[in-house]
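[Meeting: bench + compute handoff]

Bench side (C.D.) handed over the final construct sequence. Compute side (W.E.) agreed to return the predicted structure before the next meeting so the bench team could plan truncations. Sequence as handed over:
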Amino acid sequence: SIAWHFSRSRSVLEQWADEHGFEILHSEYRNLVRGPFFWTTSRGQTVYYVRVRDRQGSERSGWVRCGGWFLGLMTDKVEVRWEDEL
């Protein structure tokens, strides 16, 4: 189940990036330090700190939470908090 958890989490992250036209330049799975999602993340969700590039070549960094509160990674839900908007 641990292997599925990490595989599914990465899949959700990559699907989100692809759907929004981002290339993931760097990603860090965050277990303890979860940035703006620290107090609101359930056990079934995962948080990444990412740096992405959009189609125009602009780069952004931010926090990405994968999965829903109740069903965790059984859903494709993704929430993002960009560093430049915090």
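W.E. noted at the follow-up: The longest strand covers residues 23-30. C.D. will use this when planning the next construct.
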